[in-house]
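How a chain folds remains the central question behind the approach discussed here. For one protein, we set the task of working out the structure tokens from the amino acid sequence alone. The sequence in question and its structure tokens are set out directly beneath this paragraph.

_____
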Amino acid sequence: MRAARANGHLVLLCTGRPLSLLSPVVLRAGFDGLVLGAGCHVIVGDEVLADRRFPAEQAARVVAALDAHGAAYVLESPEAVYGRPGVDDRLRHLIDTELRPAGLEEGGPGDILEALVMTGDLDGRSFGKAVFFDSPVSGTTLAAELGEAVHVERSSIPGLGGSAGEISVEGVHKALGAQQVVEHLGLSREDVVAVGDGPNDVEMLEYAGLGVAVEGADAALLAVADRTVPGPSAAGVATLFEELGLV
């Protein structure tokens, strides 16, 4: 990434994570901008282009629905990740019983624990995205209850199945953040190369001039990708940069 930037290309990190969940190790790679929270929070250089949060009434409905079903969940914001007391124990149990035995804990939801702020009072809490897991009802059921103003996406973390997902404001996704960056910089979507591996990357790959999916990614993502690259163990993104002449 540093080599590509040195050659005059702009490299941005586009992730579902909020700023409060970004590892310093990741940021050390060097980026010209960040699209965070799957399009909620957009930063180019030192300038914040967007900080989208749930309107208060919608936020209250999301929290009430998750509480009514007894789902474990956290509310993500740039400042912190908020959850009710006990959500840390449920997350640890999920990691110990489901993810770690399958080799999926590394870089997964365990990171939430380090940024988690637990409080019994979530009323009026400002957040851009809610992430639920260990839910007794599916994301489809939650989507039907919450209505068209919100979007419920399957979890991008492998191994969590239908009991986990992400809730965001309808129309807010990674492509929206990418478009805002493109317009701010005076570029065009044809200039964009996007790489992704999860269900929340679909709109971004559709928007980009070249949409690249990691091999073995979600089927919906592979269906819209222009090409694929190997996964991290085979240095797929580095190889892509070389093949495109970025480095």
The mean pLDDT is 91. The two ends are 8 Å apart (CA to CA). DSSP finds ten helices and 13 strands in the chain.
